[in-house]
Amino acid sequence: MLVGEMIEQLNGNETTTTLAKKLGRSKQTVQKMIKSIGYEFSNKTKLWTFEGEGEPPLHTDVEELLGKARKPRKSSTPSTSNKSTTTTKQVEDNNTYNALTQDEISTLRAIIKQYNETATTLEVDNNLHSRIIQLEADDKPTRKTVFLNKEVASQLDDFAKRNRVNNSDIVELALLDFIAKYSK
User: Fold this and answer.
1) Are 19 and 33 in contact (CB under 8 A)?
2) How far is CA 31 from CA 34, 39, 55, 56, 157, in A?
3) Which of 46, 114, 104, 36 is nearest to 68 (CA)?
4) Which one is predicted more confidently, 80 or 28?
5) Within this chain, do residues 62 and 109 fall inside the same structural domain, yes or no?
6) DSSP letters of the chain?
7) What mean pLDDT, rounded, does the chain reach?
8) Domain C-terminal end among 71, 95, 127
9) Range of the domain at 50
10) How many domains are contained in the chain?
11) For residue 87, is it within any domain?
12) Average pLDDT in the 121-129 region?
């Protein structure tokens, strides 16, 4: 079958899945081959169109293109051990296939950085929560009105919401720390 015939069928009633079955290949392999020769599928028009450079390879044999994409098969000769042997070519193919792009590496680094920051925050949070639990539960708490700078008040509210604690507990701990530090 020629590429032109294949594209004509795909733009008709044929799906890549049924075409792949006819060719004895997977849908992904067939789609990858079609894209590798410059065709793109438009979800809007539901058609395969040539977007590559130059002339579309309409008279190229599909089997030939798929033959180039075929992975090397394992040897059918009997092995003396149960362990499978891996050739250097297969290892190179696997390493190339599994290689990460710079963008993926950057993303992973950002995730690790965020995780490390969160892990530090979790340690602080556990310490904060354990200190709040240790606060004396007064039967009659005393009400005190305190005036705060808008920015400090906003940071207090954000911190309390993020750590799921009460503002009064944070202020009480901060005052205990302040008094302990400066009462010497």
Assistant:
1) no
2) 5, 9, 19, 16, 53
3) 36
4) 28
5) no
6) -BHHHHHHHHTTT--HHHHHHHHTS-HHHHHHHHHHTTEEEETTTTEEEE-SSSS--TTSBHHHHHHHHPPPPPP-SPPSSSSPP--HHHHHHHHHHTPPPHHHHHHHHHHHHHHHHHHHHHHHHHHHHHHHHHS---SSPPP------HHHHHHHHHHHHHHT--HHHHHHHHHHHHHHHH--
7) 78
8) 71
9) 3-71
10) 2
11) no
12) 61
Whether residue 165 is contained in a domain is answered as yes
Give how far the C-alpha of residue 181 lies from the chain's centroid of Cα atoms, to the nearest Å.
Answer: 46
The answer to whether the CB of 27 falls within 8 A of the CB of 21 is no
If one compares 23 and 85, the residue with the highest pLDDT of the two is 23
User: What is the reported pLDDT for 84?
Assistant: 52
47 is written with which tokens? 């058609």
Query: Does residue 97 sit within a domain?
Result: no
* Residue 32 counted as domain residue: yes
pLDDT in tens, 28-78: 888 888 888 888 888 888 888 888 888 888 888 888 887 755 544 444 444
What CA–CA distances, in Å, run from 107 to 95, 98, 100? 20, 16, 11
Rg (CA), the chain: 33
108/67 same-domain check: no
Task: Specify which residues 47 forms β-bridges with.
Answer: 42
51: amino acid identity, one letter: E
User: pTM of the full predicted structure?
Assistant: 0.37
